[in-house]
Amino acid sequence: MDNDSLITKILKSVFFKNAKGKAGRYAGNATRLMELAQQVMGKLNTVGFKGNMAEFQSNVQLLIRMVKAYASGEYKGLPWKSLVSIVAVLIYFISPIDIIPDFLPLIGITDDIALVIWLIKTLGSDVNKFSEWEKQEKTINIG
């Protein structure tokens, strides 16, 4: 199965539709966004991505930083539609039951990886804008 057909199956799945349904409610609540960020970090730490999975882990950490910066009010440049998409993907990521259940060794995380890669590509300009903002913030806070 190629990556595009896996993404299509994920996006049409009841599991992703459920995550999307929750995403709007989460996106409007800073406390829920922060809790979601904590749950995602917990799963990242539990799974313990090594080697070639480091890029995936850094992409998820970037998404977490985006959500936290938005929730805290520090970053206001994230469009609502993009925020809801990020939140839906993160909700899907923490769900143990999805298209490929996470308890299956090695392959259980495949759908999560494909979905995060798809999201980073889809939201490319929003991700780049946030990364630039983040670099500027670090420069301002250091200087």
Any overview of this molecule?
This protein has 143 residues and is mainly α. It has one domain (3-138). Helix content is 76%, strand content 0%. It has 7 helices and no strands. Helix 4 (54-72) crosses helix 5 (80-94). It is globular and about 45 Å long.
> How many beta strands in the DSSP annotation?
0
In total, the number of domains comes to 1
Distance N to C terminus: 50 Å
The helix-strand sequence is HHHHHHH
- As a percent range, the share of strand residues is under 5%
* Helix and strand composition category: mainly alpha
Average pLDDT metric: 90
Largest sheet: none
Uncertain parts: none
How many DSSP H or I helices? 7
Apparent shape: globular
Gyration radius, in Å = 15 Å
User: How much helix, percentage-wise, in residues?
Assistant: over 70%
Brief write-up:
With 143 residues, this protein is mainly alpha-helical.
